[in-house]
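Weekly sync, protein design subgroup
Attendees: M.S., D.O., the rotation student, P.L. (late)

Item 1: inverse folding check
M.S. brought a backbone from last month's batch and wanted to see whether the design step gives back something sensible before we order anything. D.O. pointed out we never logged the input encoding, so this time it goes straight into the notes. Structure tokens as presented (742 positions):
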């Protein structure tokens, strides 16, 4: 008895300690996540450009699989135990987060499209709304990535093929089935699929095969996800160098005799009297029954519009950094392309590279690029002029304007080459002239995110049916199960139903097998184990189903009389495990949801504060900035007192501190001569931010309490598996003698 007590005490203490340490680590991570989110908001990198993931907080169980699965860093983070978008602008639409989420809580979306005038109105087949036979594919539709472009190209070729087949017009040799504009991955895939389907197709390309990939820096590693390239097969590797990918595409084009008209600039479209398209280009006019426009979104490079820009030393892309050595180079821009070019050039012998960026800091950069550029600046390999604009370009130097407002100054720096990465002028006017609408009213409504189903309904239904079947079995043999252990020995059904033989043993074997299946979810979920069979959502369903059924099977195995043996304790552990699993799966999400909701409100208050105070800063010397910092300090102190005692103390003293701070702000504001109504609005906002922070902190306490399920779930699982193994080994060793005694 004392042994059991001591062991229990040690176990409880051990679990409590580990749970506490883990909880503290999670608090720290949440704090870091919140700070990162504030930074992202300040820099504007929180807002996505195109698609971005939207976690459904009512479903998210905070497992972090999405964070680990995302190939771009920092898009998602777990905050308050749930996935939250932090750097939305870093999302390029891989969609792995949505695919890997075990509970289907993430959807990729464009968000609210009602105001967007940069996305074409297309049918699900990529056909321009109101223009039959005119299709768009690839990045021009708003979706980036090579894999997506290929998928779009294939879908368009199939839709065009359907249209050709369903038409009763007799084909003539001078009319193409499909004219494709753009030889990037979308156009190429479209042409290959068209060839496979027996269509007559031609690609019109203003430059050369490869699209945007051709302008990647030399040897840049391209990340793709496995995708089927028609007539070639699967591109199975996840990374290719730019050169490998282009070589592969050139080979496919040669092998399948894909017709590409290079140096052919597409200029517009018309309809011929018989409904075909007249496709205008710098190399003449073609007639086609269908057109696929796959011209990407980069359009023509945006120019700076400064004196001397027409000089031959100015370029708008960089192919090969290695051919530049011992040069004085200016790179203009602050996006990933500019940073990659500047870093590539700075690595070459003897180059002096200066980066000119018009903003005060980088935003929307990939995390890796951001880290690398700051490292290069720190190490002196690269000079970066923030808040700078080029004024003129001359033969041996460039003139730049530095700073803003009163601090403006003009500098001249020696220079041999200028690379401009100021984005592109989107090809939207050309598309509009072809009949593509960008009117949000023409776009089919986006699928409502709340409509997503829950696969667990099926799982629970199946578990219920099987559990009922076992219950039916037990009721049918109720006359045996109602007997005492001693009476059972003489019963006729004993050999069939006892744990160690017949069906009782079969139930045990089924239970152990289900536990093994249940545990296989863990390696599948682990980002470090490359075991990719089936989707994680199916594995999660299998995890839930096998857990419940294992409990049912083990109850039947125990013949409804679990003893104080290792097996009996394993059964108790399994029951506890199922209970903690249910808490985690269904109840855990509610509280963090509330905490994240509060955080969003705090963010909203901060944004309003920033709006209000930015106006003052234009006139008064950084007063608004000071107020914001003051309030942020107040909010932070309300949130992150990690010890219980400190939190109670904060509750007691918080109101007084809040009043004191607000009085001071008010006094200062009056001295600065700010309008009375502005000051009262500020004080209301400050009070609201502080109160939201306090409530969020309380949710955090509650969440920590509920979050304990996770640790219990893990540790009880470990204990239960150990007990099951001991039970099986002992049963195998001692057979039925064991059944009666231990
Ligand atoms: C720096 C950088 C790195 C990237 N890295 C990756 C990565 O690692 N993995 C990944 O999956 N994606 C990456 N992408 C995105 C990827 O390159 C694009 O999503 C993809 O190339 C889009 O393919 P597309 O065929 O739609 O368009 P594009 O590749 O842009 O091709 C469009 C083609 O149309 C031609 N064209 C345009 N206008 C006309 C006209 N008027 N007449 C005739 N032809 C015209 C262009 O010359 C071009 O060849 C990256 C993009 C950039 C900029």
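Designed sequence read out in the meeting:
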């Amino acid at each position: 008895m004392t042994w059991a007590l001591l062991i229990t005490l040690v176990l409880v203490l051990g679990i409590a300690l580990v749970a506490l340490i883990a909880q503290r680590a999670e608090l720290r991570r949440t704090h870091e996540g919140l700070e990162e989110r504030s930074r992202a908001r300040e820099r504007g990198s929180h807002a996505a450009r195109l698609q971005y993931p939207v976690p459904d907080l009512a479903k998210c169980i905070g497992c972090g699989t999405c964070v680990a699965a995302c190939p771009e860093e920092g898009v998602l983070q777990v905050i308050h135990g749930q996935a939250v978008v932090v750097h939305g602008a870093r999302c390029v639409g891989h969609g792995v987060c949505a695919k890997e989420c075990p509970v289907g809580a993430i959807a990729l979306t464009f968000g609210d499209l009602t105001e967007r005038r940069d996305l074409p109105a297309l049918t699900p087949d990529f056909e321009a709304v109101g223009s039959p036979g005119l299709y768009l594919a690839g990045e021009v539709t708003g979706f980036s990535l090579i894999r997506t472009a290929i998928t779009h190209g294939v879908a368009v070729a199939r839709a065009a093929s359907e249209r050709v087949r369903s038409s009763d017009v007799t084909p003539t040799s001078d009319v193409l089935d499909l004219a494709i504009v753009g030889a990037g991955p979308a156009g190429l895939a479209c042409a290959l699929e068209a060839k496979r389907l027996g269509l007559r197709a031609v690609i019109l390309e203003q430059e050369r095969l490869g699209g945007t990939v051709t302008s990647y820096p030399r040897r840049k590693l391209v990340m793709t996800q496995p995708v089927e390239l028609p007539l070639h097969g699967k591109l199975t590797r996840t990374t290719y160098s730019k050169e490998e990918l282009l070589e592969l595409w050139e080979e496919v084009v040669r092998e399948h005799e894909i017709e590409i008209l290079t140096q052919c600039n597409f200029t517009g479209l018309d309809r011929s009297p018989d409904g075909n398209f007249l496709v205008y280009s710098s190399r003449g006019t073609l007639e086609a029954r269908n057109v696929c426009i796959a011209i990407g979104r980069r359009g023509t490079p945006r120019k700076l519009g400064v004196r001397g820009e027409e000089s031959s030393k100015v370029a708008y892309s960089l192919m090969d950094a290695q051919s530049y050595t011992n040069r004085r180079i200016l790179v203009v821009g602050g996006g990933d392309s500019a940073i990659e070019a500047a870093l590539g050039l700075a690595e070459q012998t003897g180059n002096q590279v200066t980066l000119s960026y018009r903003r005060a800091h980088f935003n929307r950069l990939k995390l890796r690029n951001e880290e690398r550029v700051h490292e290069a600046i720190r190490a002196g390999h690269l000079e970066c002029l923030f808040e700078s604009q080029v004024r003129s370009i001359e033969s041996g130097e460039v003139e730049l304007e530095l700073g803003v407002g009163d601090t403006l100054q003009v500098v001249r720096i020696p220079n041999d080459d200028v690379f401009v990465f100021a984005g592109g002028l989107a090809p939207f006017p050309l598309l509009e002239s072809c009949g593509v609408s960008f009117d949000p009213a023409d776009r089919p409504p986006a699928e409502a995110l709340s409509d997503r189903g829950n696969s667990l309904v099926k799982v629970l239904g199946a578990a219920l049916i099987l559990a009922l079947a076992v219950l039916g079995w037990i009721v049918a043999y109720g006359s045996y199960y109602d007997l005492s252990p001693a009476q059972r020995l003489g019963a006729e059904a004993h050999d069939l139903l006892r744990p160690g033989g017949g069906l009782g043993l079969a139930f045990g074997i089924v239970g152990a097998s289900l536990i093994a299946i249940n545990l296989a979810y863990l390696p599948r979920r682990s980002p470090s184990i490359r075991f990719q069979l089936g989707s994680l959502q199916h594995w999660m369903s299998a995890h839930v189903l096998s857990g419940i059924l294992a409990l049912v099977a083990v109850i039947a195995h125990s013949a409804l009389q679990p003893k104080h043996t290792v097996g009996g304790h394993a059964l108790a552990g399994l029951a506890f495990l199922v209970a903690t699993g249910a808490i985690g799966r269904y109840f855990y999400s509610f509280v963090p949801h509330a905490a994240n909701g509060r955080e969003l409100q705090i963010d909203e208050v901060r944004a309003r504060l920033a709006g209000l105070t930015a106006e003052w800063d234009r006139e008064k010397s950084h007063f608004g900035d000071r107020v914001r910092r003051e309030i942020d300090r107040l909010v932070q102190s309300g949130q992150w007192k990690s010890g219980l005692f400190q939190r109670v103390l904060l509750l007691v003293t918080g109101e007084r501190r809040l009043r004191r701070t607000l009085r001071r702000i008010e006094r200062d504001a009056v001295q600065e001569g700010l309008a009375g109504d502005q000051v009262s609005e500020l004080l209301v906002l400050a009070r609201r931010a502080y109160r939201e922070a306090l409530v969020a902190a309380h949710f955090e306490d509650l969440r920590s309490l509920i979050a304990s399920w996770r640790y219990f779930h893990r540790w009880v699982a470990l204990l239960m598996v150990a007990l099951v193994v001991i039970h099986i080994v002992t049963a195998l060793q001692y057979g039925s003698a064991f059944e009666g005694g231990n």
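Discussion: Residues 138-139, 144-147, 149, 181-187, 204-207, 211-213, 216, 222-224, 265-266, 294-296, 298, 336-337, 427 surround flavin-adenine dinucleotide (CB under 6 Å). The chain is about 50% helix and 15% strand.
Action: P.L. to compare against the previous round before Friday.
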